[in-house]
Amino acid sequence: MPSHVLFFVHGMGEFEPDWSTQLQAQLREHFRSYKRLREKGTDKNFDFVEINYNDVFEEERARWKSNADEAAKAAGKDGMEKDLIKSILDAAKAPTGDSFFQTHLLDVVLFYSFAQVSQRVQLRVADQILKRLRADGENNVPRWSVLAHSLGTAVTAETVHAMFTHKAGGVRLGDAFKPQYLAMVANCSRLLWNKGGDLYRSKARPEDMEGGGTCWKYLNFRHKLDPIPQVQPFHPPPAHWFPADTDPDRVYLDCELPAKDVASANVHSLEHYLSHPLVHIPLISTLIDQPDWISPAEQQDALLDWRTNKALKGKALKKAQDELDAMASDPDDPMAAAFSKWLLYRTSIGRKLRADGEN
Questions:
Q1: Rounded distance between C-alpha atoms, residue 142 and residue 198, angstroms
Q2: Has residue 355 been placed in a domain?
Q3: Integer angstrom CA distances of residue 177 from 173, 180, 211
Q4: Considering the domain boundaries, does residue 357 fall inside one?
Q5: Are the C-beta atoms of residues 339 and 109 closer than 8 Å to each other?
Q6: 229 within 8 A of 188, measured Cβ to Cβ
Q7: Which of 35, 96, 259, 337 could covalently link to 333 via disulfide, CB atoms 3.0 to 4.6 Å apart?
Q8: How crowded is the C-beta side of 55, counted as CA atoms within 13 Å?
């Protein structure tokens, strides 16, 4: 029986059941790429489980699409910023039909702006996690971790926080239910935290003696040219985020892929991130809790192979970099400006270079 459950949490977009099949295969292939892990069959110790919450948004998308003006009035009453409402209305009424409802950036706006929507998403995700954790009985809870992407990082942060600050199914979850590791890819959890207080004081952080956090290690992955995590970036966490008297490197990893490492203009995709050795090697090493099983020589060989055989070069690289640079956001950009850049990314790159199991 697998000893560790890894939940995949998708980002913004249209996802149907089995969206993560290719991503799971990609990660298992990386497990088998390294000699010692392959010999020990390490990937067999993991049960990969996908999380779906797209259905929560479907009803809201339909409401905006069928009656955008009425939905906008409701949004205004709920406190949504006027610039965001205007952006949604402009997209909804676009004659081309290439709107928020096809790019699904609306999901992000709904999650950020409407408490009832984010709460429904949290419940949907928590129910799926707890169903798997309780599948073998309350006294046989497996170790578990999360691999979350894009909007999924905000969903994960808020779900984990809610799971360990409120009763789940009428009971308070004990320490046995706490996750081992949280791996956040293209992390926008800080930007989308709209529940009051400080995200860095939420439960989605490393455990401390006072029970302030929940996981043993937090991994933060971002690409230099990815526009999604650029606004109100997660890194670096403030000093109070780390447990007292703890080496920060033991409980936190931050990895920023350099601007030269581009295999596709869709650098935001989880597939692109997972393909890179600087992402999948520390992820795997953390999950198996064996930092030395992939040797330094193997790591260097894998990085050289990626940069030689997968990375764009010459004019193709320059074209992708220029396109991404044009969508760059400043860390202090207002929300509406950030979403405008995200929409540009979705329509010009994300839809043309689909990945991650998105329909």
A1: 30
A2: no
A3: 6, 9, 13
A4: no
A5: yes
A6: yes
A7: 337
A8: 7
pLDDT truncated to tens, each residue of the chain (359 aa)?
468 999 999 998 888 899 999 999 999 999 999 999 999 999 999 999 999 999 898 877 777 667 666 666 666 655 566 776 666 666 555 544 445 555 567 788 788 878 888 999 999 999 999 999 999 887 899 999 999 999 999 999 999 999 999 876 667 788 889 999 999 999 999 999 987 788 999 999 999 877 789 999 999 999 999 999 999 999 999 999 999 889 999 999 999 999 999 999 999 999 999 999 999 999 999 999 999 999 999 999 999 999 999 999 999 999 999 999 999 999 998 887 888 888 888 888 987 888 988 87
Q: Is the peptide bond before 236 cis (omega within 30 degrees of 0)?
A: yes
Report how far apart, in Å, the C-alpha atoms of 122 and of each of 119, 144, 154, 186, 212 are: 5, 18, 10, 19, 20
pTM (2 d.p.): 0.92
- Domain total for the chain? 1
Closest by CA position to 4, among listed 286, 331, 264:
286
Helices (H), the chain: 21-31, 35-40, 54-66, 68-77, 82-92, 100-103, 106-113, 115-133, 151-163, 189-192, 248-251, 270-275, 277-288, 296-309, 314-325, 335-345
For 15-36, give one letter per residue: b (16+ CB within 10 A) or e.
beeebbeebbeebeebbebbee
- 126: domain CATH number? 3.40.50.1820
State which residues form the domain around 63: 4-350
Distance (Å, whole) CA 173 – CA 167: 7
